[in-house]
Amino acid sequence: MNHPNRKGWVTHKYLVKEIIMEKSKPKKSNIKLWFVTYNIEYQPVDQMAGGWLEDELVNAGEDTPDFVAIGMQEALWRGGGKGHAGLGKYIIVETELPYKRIKIEGVERWRTTGSTKVKKGLNCQSLELLKHDKSQCSVKVKQAKALDLGGLLQKVKNKVSAGEKGVREMICDFTSPDKKEVRVFIETAHLNTNEQPQELKGYLKKINERVDKKKWKGDVAFLMGDLNFRLSPNLTSKGELDVKEMLTKAQLDELWKMDTLNHVLKGFKWKFPNFTKGTLPTYKLKYKGNRNDHYQNRRNLNTLNSETLKQTYSILTEESEKKRKVGDYPVVELGWLDRIGYKIYNRNIKVNMRSLESRTDAMGADHLPVIMKCDIEF
């Protein structure tokens, strides 16, 4: 005997089944992480903080991070000392923001001349991890060290040591409020100007090997830093004159096609996302002449207006005549050198990137700081 309302009964049966299955699914855990990278050109950290990171944290609202990872290159703290170095430490000491520093790796005591000069060849990178005081998440730093790449970072006539350009790494176990754990590799790097493709590919392979090791078995890895990949007109039909023209017209999508990092990473499963807002290349932004005039020009760049870009192009590309190459590609000085990317090793992990932006109002160095705001869902 057929059911009097079989069609509706079947539909109801499967609806009930779906509700039961939905309820039986484990709830996803979530940790909010920010990543900040900044090459400060051997300037004192206390002069470079400038309020831009404080501004980001104060105005974060619902996006307030549980943790902030900060990587700096060419860093100098006035007077030196492990206990004082680092942008995150400055933020904590000089402001009333509710963060504490969990760990810092890679800053040694500096030998200084006067108040700002530093003898090159010393360690000038740092990697910090900050935690919000009210976060219900926790973290254990399983390891923090300079990463040995087997000489990969010392290829250019022995002029570059792993102390000045190299890699810092933290392996962190983050725990959500519901006691679920995710293991995250956090890396900051400063790659050699002339050997980037070889170094980066070798470095990413090293990370893959470490993450896959039974001892560590990571879920996701993040890499940030001054990776030194510039723009190459050879990657499109454009020439250098066209690069200038596209810059003055703020045709950033076209310039992005010339980015050599995107080209070199074809075939790798690492993701280095495009910026979520149109932003000028993060280098070269060195000032010429009067520093106050330079600062005003830098502020004008925020508008991405054709006229202000024309006025400041010489600042952006003052060394564009240098003959540089990325692999076989000749490049101009200009580029998105400061980057943040990631690779997921556990298919149950998801990285939700909320934004990736640079701060053009950060003054004093020839680079711009870059901030990625994301959630790790697991």
Report on this structure:
With about 375 residues, the chain is α+β, with helices and mostly antiparallel strands. It is about 25% helix and about 30% strand. The strands form four sheets. A six-stranded mixed sheet has the order 3-6-2-1-15-14. It has a five-stranded mixed sheet with strand order 7-8-9-10-13, with no helix packed on it. It has a two-stranded antiparallel sheet with strand order 4-5. A hairpin with a 5-residue loop joins strand 8 and strand 9. Helix 9 crosses helix 10.
Sheet with the most strands: spatial strand order: 3-6-2-1-15-14
* Cα gyration radius (Å): 23 Å
Unreliable stretches: 78-84, 108-123, 150-164, 313-321
Largest sheet: 6 strands, mixed
**Element order, helices and strands?**
HEHHEHEEEEEEEHEHHHHHEEEEE
Rounded average pLDDT: 75
Instruction: Please estimate the helix content.
Output: 25-40%
Structural class: alpha+beta
Strands, total number? 15
What are the key terms here?
15 strands, 378 residues, 10 helices, alpha+beta, 6-stranded mixed beta sheet, 5-stranded mixed beta sheet
Brief digest:
With 378 residues, this protein is an alpha+beta fold. The chain has helices at residues 6-24, 45-48, 52-58, 87-94, 196-212, 240-248, 252-256, 260-264, 291-301, 306-316, and strands at 30-44, 67-76, 99-105, 112-113, 117-118, 126-132, 138-146, 167-175, 181-190, 220-226, 324-326, 329-331, 338-344, 350-358, 370-377.
